[in-house]
Amino acid sequence: MASHFVRPNIRAMHGYTPGEQPGTGDRVVKLNTNENPFPPSPKVMQAIRDIAPESLRRYPNPTADGFREVAASVLDIPQDMILAGNGSDDILTIATRTFVPPGGTLAYPDPTYSLYKVLANIEDAKVSPVHWKEGWQLPVDALLATKADAIYLANPNAPSGTFVTPDVVSELAEQFEGLLLIDEAYADFAEDNCLALASKYDNVVVSRTFSKAYSLAGMRFGYAVAKSAVISQMMKVKDSYNCDAISVIAATAAMQDQDYAQMTWNHVKQDRARVAEELTKLGFEVLPSQTNFVFAKVPGGDGLGMYKSLKELGILVRHFDTGTLKPYLRITIGTGQENNALLGGIRELLAKEKAA
Ligand SMILES: Cc1ncc(COP(=O)(O)O)c(C=O)c1O
Fold first, then answer.
1. CATH homologous superfamily for 8-39+259-355?
2. What is the pTM of this model?
3. pLDDT at position 1, please?
4. How far is the CA of 156 from the centre of ligand 1 (A)?
5. The ligand 1 atom nearest the CA atom of 85
């Protein structure tokens, strides 16, 4: 049992469970944590090779201004609307510490990214998970009824991959008195996004990451966009040097090479359509995805069984052993070859099942 000197809310809570990360030498088809299947842009790798020893000897710029300047120009917003973070998880941590008081409430449509609950628990705040409406539609009225201090909306959502249009999210922002955080970790794979809402509404924060769209999950870099008055409050909460010098250089080079990033998004979107179509032919129910993964109900409903059997074949996907998610697998879109290996593995397992 944890000792008496640990805060009671920390003793009572469960920590976040990350997806499995096999060693780099392990031969697996890794489709379980929504990484980009392409390497980072060659320009990013060159920028890392060119790092001057001096920029490691010194502390980095505390607010990652080199990145903010480039991001402001790419996104066409003022620099003081941007806060850089050590991955978007850091942005979510900063947001929770800034907007959700101990004893307060964080609401979110559920199921969603399981870190939100963990962050609220750390803050000793309550959570109000609100079920998505039929067809993964945003439950605007039920979210408002929670009277929460903040609402977190992953859009597109994980693990469903589904998307809420900006006009519906606007309805929520307009009527809600607390802070609305729109987690756009997967927005670059979607047909639209809510960035404009951060300029329009005083109570909206949009968070983004370089882990998926820019192939830099190992680097840890993300950012938030909000009105400058909101960003300046979040700046007080962040760690003094929350982004290291190497990550700032890498993310800046990645942001500058939009053509390369766009090429990877186009590939992923094309193969997402192919994987969804093939899985449907094999009897899966595939939710419409606007992300770099698909969420699919396994024929027969034994999600855990299929997850385990694929793992034995060296193919890693994500299974959530909880509630209504149990019959589903969340499958990251990989390279063409990886996707073929996945589909081949599934065909093999279904054929075996049929023969048994
Ligand atoms: C919805 C959502 N938000 C945020 C993150 C975390 O991103 P990062 O790697 O930038 O911390 C993830 C990662 O899987 C995610 O699914």
1. Aspartate Aminotransferase, domain 1 (3.90.1150.10)
2. 0.97
3. 57
4. 11
5. 10
